[in-house]
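Field guide to reading this record: the first block holds the primary sequence, the second block holds the structure written as discrete tokens, and the final block holds curator observations. Each block starts with its own label. This record concerns Apoptosis-inducing factor 3, catalogued under organism Piaya cayana.

BLOCK 1 — SEQUENCE
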Amino acid sequence: MFLFVPAVEVKIEVVIPEKERSKEEMSPNGKTSPLIYKVNGTARHYHLEEHPIASNPYHNPKDVVEASVCHVKDLENGQMREVDLGCGKALLIKESGEFHAVGHKCPHYGAPLVKGVLSRGRVRCPWHGACFNISTGDIEDFPGLDSLPRFQVKIEKEKVYIRASKQALQTQRRTKMMAKCISLSNYNLSSTNVLIVGAGAAGLVCAETLRQEGFSDRIVMCTMDRHLPYDRPKLSKVCSTSWNQGMVGSEKGEEKKAEILLEPHQGGLQSPLPPRGQEKPLYCLQCVFCRPKALSCKGKEVENVFNIRTPEDANRVVKLATSKNVVIVGASFLGMEVAAYLTERAHSVSVVELEEVPFKKFFGERVGRAVMKMFENNRVKFYMQTEVSELREQEGKLKEVVLKSGKVLRADVCVVGVGAVPATGFLKQSGINIDSKGFIVVNKMMQTNIPGVFAAGDAVTFPLALRNNKKVNVPHWQMAHMHGRIAALNMLAHGMEISTVPYLWTAMFGKSIRYAGHGEGFDDVVIQGDLDELKFVAFYTKSDEVVAVASMNYDPIVSKVAEVLAAGRTIRKRDHWWGFLFFRTGDMSWLTGKGS
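BLOCK 2 — STRUCTURE
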């Protein structure tokens, strides 16, 4: 994914006349301006589901509830409590002697934040690692777009009262109010346009952040998809989710006022950058994704062989797989998630993998074997240390998958999940720095070597502070969100460097493995818990340093470790055994006081 802006100084005046503000906020028909997008060059209006958030949450007295929730001594510093206000719940927090109240559910997937981690003035979600400021409710780390509603707290006669909007209590999310701005009179409007090529997580968060920071000029998002932005991880985790049910930020359209160009012409552009001296500030590119690897065996063009890339792919696989034989090629995250989802729907599910154990390079052999056993207990058959040699057809449709081991598998549907490669070949003559593996190289501010050109998402390598600024590629949902935010802030000359802890999750058979850090090159895995019972914590170490952690049925330990790493602390292998005892009790003081 590319994010393009011209290399110019941005100046914004944050206050506008009341007359102009009313024009800015209203469309010609007097309603809130909808999201505007273009399909094949034709402008259309797309009205997304409205969840208006009033600038004054207590404007209507009938919408307000106030309740006494506890005594001031009921909470110690560093504690959180979920409290009931009668028409909804809030999260009450005490830190540094002050009380704060915010929404009690993470707006991403609804995780109870009271089970999360409180540290350094923010609460981190126990499920997927999103972080929220406890004073403002603002989202500070991802995934997700919405912030938490913030409620008024007052102390009277040593009792804690919360005053809240009923609507906010019910929705448990807050769309950030966009700053309404105008450019200075000497500011050239034609030079302030922003083009975002790709409408995935990075592109969407980039547009969102630009608007939040007061950028009022034109934003154009260009994507090869036929859909507005959606929750892409659900394509493999919940294969039958339709695109409009899985949308990311479906409540954002009225505020973004961005143009989205869906399915541009297939020829694309011949050059990614404007010719030298040309006045046009931006050029549109073909969308740059990491392209799924295809099979190279005989019969690879047979019908009913899929790379799941779109909602249509996922829905088609589910429909064809019902009561049929399915072969998954590749024990990757995508392959294993699809296999798990189809188990209850298909007649049979088989997984073919070149390695000895699934996830061995990522989770280690012991965790990989535990996961493999879970799949086998759910009727999934594995054919390991082999590859596909041929796909056989009958009347043009897949009939059998032949393995190099000689085994022949009956197959009506085949899903290929053997990895992806950056689709950046067309950039070789552009001047943009691309590494030997095809990834776009960016600095800590997501800038390429070309002034005014930023890159974000799965096809980039960037310096990871957690690993001493080693250039890494982290193709995960949370990281794409952060890439987009950092790029947007630096388009506006904030000088913001990326500093986040990678966080990911995978879901299979109703169980989730959560993971934080960057364990590439780990040389040991220290496991606590019971792998057979699928209740464990795995610490990945390199020399004496813990570089990553994974867990199943042990929340919120991964979020706890993520917070420690985010604070710049180092967890040493020699500290681990004591640390585990404190993790179980929730006390993090040993970590925040130790390490380098």
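BLOCK 3 — OBSERVATIONS
The CA atoms of residues 61 and 165 lie 9 Å apart.
The two ends are 35 Å apart (CA to CA).
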